[in-house]
Description:
By secondary structure, the protein is of the alpha+beta class. The chain has 13 helices and ten strands. It folds into three domains: 3-110, Acyl-CoA dehydrogenase/oxidase, N-terminal domain (Butyryl-Coa Dehydrogenase, subunit A, domain 1, Orthogonal Bundle), CATH 1.10.540.10; 112-204, Butyryl-CoA Dehydrogenase, subunit A, domain 2, CATH 2.40.110; 230-380, Butyryl-CoA Dehydrogenase, subunit A, domain 3, CATH 1.20.140. It has helices at residues 3-29, 34-43, 61-71, 76-94, 97-104, 206-211, 215-219, 230-233, 239-257, 272-305, 311-339, 349-360, 368-380, and strands at residues 112-115, 121-125, 128-138, 146-153, 162-168, 173-175, 189-199, 203-205, 261-262, 266-267. α10 (272-305) packs antiparallel against α11 and α11 (311-339) runs antiparallel to α13. It is globular and about 75 Å long. It starts with a helix and ends in a 9-residue tail after the last helix.
Amino acid sequence: MSTIAQTLLIRATGLVPVLAAREAAANDGRSVPDETIADFHRLGILRAMQPRRFGGHQASFDVFSRIVETLAEGCGASAWVYAVLAEHQWIIACMGDKAQIDVWGDNPAAVASSSLAPRETARRVTDGWRLSGRFPFSSGCRHAQWAIIGAKAEDAAGNKPIRYMLVPMEHIEIVDDWHVLGLRGTGSCSLVVEDVFVPEHRTVLFGDLMDGTTPGSAILPEYSLLRAPRGYLVPFSLPPVMFTLARRALGLVPATLRTRISRGTREVAMSEVVQMRLGEAAASIDTAVLIMHTRRAQSIAAVESGAAISPEAIARNRRDVTFAADQLRRGMEALMAVSGARSVYDTDPLQALVRDVMTIGTHVVVSWQSAMVPYGQIMLGVQAAGGEG
């Protein structure tokens, strides 16, 4: 591991107790505190994957993904927002030179939130597109200077390929509609755009991102990450938050059961049923983490070696991380069951972890159908691997 990688991970680790102390405030306020974002900037961790030519670290994707896991030890919402803002530096770096200068030329610390699902169609005009619509789930948008919005971009032939479009936040209305089950502190509000012009150079084709053939890969040929198919590494961006939260729950529950007395007569820890359920939960969660870590290490090694990435390998990563996420959910359900009625209280720390894991489980990146169907298609020779979703 490089010196800068070690430094960034040490800084992230040092921030864990600070984030833990702020976790309740983040969830109650439905947004990561400004102080936390300031800490991310001060420690330089938001710039892990930003190109060096703008003052970034141009580090391995492994460093970023491990930082996400580490921060979630203190606060799941803060780790999620970090993952979004830092990972989007990769998307911006995949755009052309002019777009990168627009974002980082005057403000090298600028970050972008997003709403990537293509819910609207952008209208073609001279030198770009006009974009309107409402775009939900923009985590960390109150802390961003830009937004990356996915849209179908209709061309003269009537084709509608998906493009990711960079829009300055000053042209966007943030709608405070984030009243949700879990990840409350992420501030994932909706964005409203009214007939905004997006110049051609501030867009990148989704297909090029998925193929690793973006303009940015030509600008920085030495930065292997920019040649990586996006779908190959995306499973290791946001899901690590889920894995850490499950490990936190696994550490929490046994400690609460060791001294508990059931109905005032029997030590809960002496129950073989309790022992069995805890063993099952540990097996599910530990195995899930092992799967994710193994695939992540293999994938990053492949990217950094310059090896060709096959459609099957892309689909396999999505399949395996989704399978592991399902194991996490099973483990969390077992922990809830063995914890009993106490976990239904809002003040119970397990409940908050379960709500966050359930919410992450609704994200398309760990959607069972979206992961398993493309892999099954490849096995049958029916269709090539699907994308990020």
